[in-house]
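testing teh design pipeline on a random one, pls ignore if ur not involved
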């Protein structure tokens, strides 16, 4: 893709994102949205949720080597939307193949206000940078803008970050921890959101109150995910005959999501004014994920040796204070199951003290494709555009 023909808009030309999609006649706002990487599980979930969002108009879905293909050929459950897939967003110059991105405001296309990107790591960094320079809000569901330190990318993802200059301004898109920064993007000329990984979302929400209180002396995270978290690509270890009736550990010795977990727990403590040594357990998190034979869901069980003696009443108070006003986080008295949140943007969190061992057990459950991916990205999108945070995300969990 070529985007050097025109200069990026200046700050004086920038209009706040709260003005995007405003109907002069007084009707509901309709923000023009594109999705790059719409053929995978996360891309399909973005389409499912955004197609019913009261303030969104889906104007372009991008997939590799697609040419006006009905979305029902890739996602049969979405056929009734009558949407189509193409290799570029509307308004693209045609100079780039997938994951090419359209140029907002190009001839023949209206401006694209926001683009969701669901691509493998490293695949869309420059596309995101080009879009953001033109005033388009970018919500990246890959890892390219999650980590603040560019030196972490070679270590955890095996590539040198091509645009380290953008990392400081990108916002980690976990609203429960970074709502103020997301709100600040409403009036910012550049808006890039690095949407969190699925495991870090459940893990961080389970642990955040403990990190704020300086209680994490030692930390072991035992997490389990359904197979949709591994993506849609055909792999031998994801065949039914391999996954069914089996549980397997993977990522031993350093899963990539450890970088996010350690980064964000340190930020939480820093914002509380705690000394870096207050939570010694966050310096080297012992994280072990497992693949289990179900489609959706993540359960993250966090075993914490506290830095001091605590009571169950104190723990209950910490979690009540942290989440009483959160629309999508519920603290529950009994250990939750992944089925309690399936299909929804909700997270359930449980905390309990084992009086025999003195350890704290904090559990978080989520739907990995909704709160762990597409739903959370939409939650951040809503905030960035001055919309109600829950818009398009009000659906209740599915059961059975």
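output:
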């Amino acid at each position: 893709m070529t985007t050097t023909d025109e200069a990026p808009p200046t700050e004086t030309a920038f209009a706040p994102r709260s003005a995007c999609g405003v109907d002069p006649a007084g009707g509901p706002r309709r923000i023009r949205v594109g999705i790059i990487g719409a053929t995978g599980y996360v891309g399909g979930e973005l389409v499912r949720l955004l197609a019913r969002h009261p303030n969104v108009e889906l104007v372009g879905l991008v997939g590799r080597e697609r040419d006006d293909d009905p979305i029902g050929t890739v996602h049969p459950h979405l056929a009734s939307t009558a949407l189509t897939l193409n290799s570029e967003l509307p308004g693209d110059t045609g100079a780039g193949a997938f994951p090419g991105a359209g140029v907002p405001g190009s001839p023949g296309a209206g401006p694209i206000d926001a683009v969701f990107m669901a691509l493998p790591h490293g695949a869309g960094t420059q596309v995101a940078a080009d879009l953001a320079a033109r005033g388009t809000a970018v919500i990246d569901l890959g890892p390219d803008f999650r980590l603040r330190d560019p030196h972490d990318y070679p270590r955890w993802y095996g590539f040198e970050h091509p645009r380290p200059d953008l990392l400081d301004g990108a916002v980690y898109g976990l609203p429960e921890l970074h709502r103020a920064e997301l709100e600040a993007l409403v009036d910012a000329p550049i808006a890039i959101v690095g949407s969190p990984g699925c495991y870090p979302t459940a893990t961080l929400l389970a642990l955040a109150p403990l990190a704020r209180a300086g209680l994490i002396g030692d930390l072991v995270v035992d997490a389990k995910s359904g197979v949709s978290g591994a993506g849609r690509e055909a792999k031998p270890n994801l065949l039914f005959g391999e996954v069914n009736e089996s549980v397997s550990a993977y990522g031993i010795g350093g899963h990539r999501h450890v970088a996010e977990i350690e980064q964000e727990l340190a930020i939480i403590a820093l914002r509380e004014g705690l000394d870096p040594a207050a939570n010694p357990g966050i310096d080297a998190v012992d994280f072990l994920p497992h693949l289990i034979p179900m489609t959706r869901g993540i359960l993250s069980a966090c075993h914490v040796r506290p830095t001091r003696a605590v009571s169950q009443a104190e723990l209950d108070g910490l979690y009540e204070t942290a989440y009483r006003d959160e629309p999508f986080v519920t603290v529950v008295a009994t250990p939750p199951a992944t089925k309690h949140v399936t299909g929804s943007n909700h997270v359930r969190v449980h905390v309990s003290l084992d009086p025999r061992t003195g350890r704290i057990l904090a559990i978080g459950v989520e739907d990995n494709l909704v709160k762990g991916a597409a739903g959370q990205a939409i939650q951040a999108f809503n905030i960035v555009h001055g919309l109600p945070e829950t818009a398009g995300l009000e659906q209740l969990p599915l059961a059975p």
